[in-house]
Amino acid sequence: MSAISFDPASGVWLLSTARTSYALWIDPTGAPCHLAWGPPLTLAAAGRLVLPAGEVSSFEGRSPAGEELPVDGGARYGVPSLRVRFADGTRAFEWAHLGHRIGEPAPGTKELALEFRDRHYPLAVALHYRVHDDTDVVERWTVLRNTGRQPMAVLRADSAAWTLPPRDHYRISHVTGQWSAEGLLHREPVPHGETVLTSRRGITSHHANPWLMLDAGDCGEDRGEVWSAALAWSGSWHLTVQRTPDGRTSCTGGAGHDGTELPLGPGQEYATPRFAGLYTDRGFSAASRAWHAYVRSHVLPHPDEMRPVLFNSWEATGFEVDEAGQKALAVRAAQLGVELYVVDDGWFRGRRDDSAGLGDWTPGTERFPRGLVPLVGEVHRLGMRFGLWVEPEMVNPDSDLYRAHPDWVLHFPHRTRTELRNQLVLNFARDDVAEWAYGWLTRLVADNGIDFLKWDMNRAFSEAGWPAREDGQDLLWTRYVHHLYDVIDRLRADHPGLRIETCSGGGGRVDLGILSRTDQAWPSDNTDAADRVSIQHGFSQIYPAQVMAAWVTDVPNQLTGRSVPLRYRFHVAMAGVLAVGGDLARWTPEELSEGAELVAQYKTVRHIVQHGVQHRLRGPVDDGPTAVQYTTADRREVLVLVWQRAPRHGTPRPALRLAGLDPTACYRDVTTGAVHHACVLTGYGIAPELPTGDWSSTSLHLIRVDDMTTEGTGSH
Q: SS3 sequence, 676-704?
């Protein structure tokens, strides 16, 4: 059970989850300060952490770590989480505590709000904390309100700052990458000074993701303390980690990036996105599982649904999309066992290549002379749902929309409008642009019976200006994202059965903010199964398999030229939400038969993958096998997926020690019938039989056997 308690005598607040505690207090200067984040504490024990202020060197000022929201003001020289410029030019902020509120906004949820104001200027600041009964995640956010009659500028407003206990050798875990190579995991020592992870692109970005894990340098997958945090924001963002000379480490993070500011007019309020934090003493894998459970319970709109097997037309047809061709592909997709048929780019007016048509969202009459309804009807008749690719935030200069509204794009006067991918970014911060997008989207879905949208966003911001407003170039960064969220929220309210996949040139917009209003994510435009093993490994650090779309496409792969067996491609894609993206018209009868068999196999185990508990048994660290395990919550069923790149002769084959099984049970291999003791599987391991040669893979499906003897069954 979660709880929030306060001790008036010590002035300490204690937030308790099932396995952790978080404690804070207000120091004699009025600043909210951190006390503890880690193993469980009593309120009395937390009070003992309040120590008399020690002597501070006149050369140092306040420690850069230790405050709940470090401000720009006084003798502070670390990274400020809050920087404000008041109407008279003053920037320093001074805390004045007003009180606190403890409430229960929903059953099983507790919330603390600490209320402050500046000692002189009309700015109110509220620090919010929320805990739930079913997770150790602590949610934090900050609310700023201008209570005066003059405008002010918010130069930086982070959601929260997290302080860790002193340790000698902190490491940081995070992902980096680029288009088609997203989510590559890095684990490295935290240097002294400041480490900044950021996106200045207006989107989450392919190059980094707004989460991190910190450990004391001795943590593994299944042991050790991990402190982690993830930001729920889909625009520009920053996370700054500080390691101080006195051995402290902290992290502050929020929306925005350097060089921008947020205008806050009289009476206006700004609520930062949520910045969630998690502590565990059971290793990286336990941290990931806790994040997966949190995403299911407190982020996703429909966590209990099974994601359907999907076919996407892009790699089969490119821009050559027409009614007859799509109907023919749909027949083959249905025979393969596909449940959701998605038409990708190329279906709308003027779209022959990527140089024209974006913004003119009506079906091309030469390709669909009767509109989309006949194709949608045929897909539904075949027993599949129908999905469509859209890119509502983009426009080609060669489009009727741009010719009518050239002022609708991000731009500056007297500056080149930089085109990437022959397109410009529509200014979703504008009310009229957001209303236009909502209007055609809701009509498109309603008029055609659309079940699913692949919502793409293929380029970063440039010339991020809004000349019609004096404060536009600063205001647009946050308003853009809020309007994006609002359009999606309104669209889903209009069409409760609609499901949405978030995509941004692959994995450029994957975060807790967009996942709170979509159903799955496209991790990368790179569909090479060999590359996907590493991409999916990084993705799994925070995000569950239930939201990870994974395609089986043709070989040689369009990006890498690599050829790997069809079974290997399927086994890699089975680790998430299975989809097919190849040109089925060119598949041989043998490939179609094998593909149908593997789709059917996935359907028998997808409840384990999508709703189960994940263990990373062996990461993509060497030439040896990579293995991932999924287990149902009741520990009745287990699925292990194993991929081997190119084994070297004489290299020992490692036994995979399974995890999370019922220790007193036995498990039967569904394929061979062999029965295994759980204590052997977890204590000593199993070496799955892999085919010989390069790019071999296998799956192991185990079901618990109750009340039976294993004598003579070949148990090992």
A: EEHHHHHHCCECCCCCCCCCEEEEEEEEE
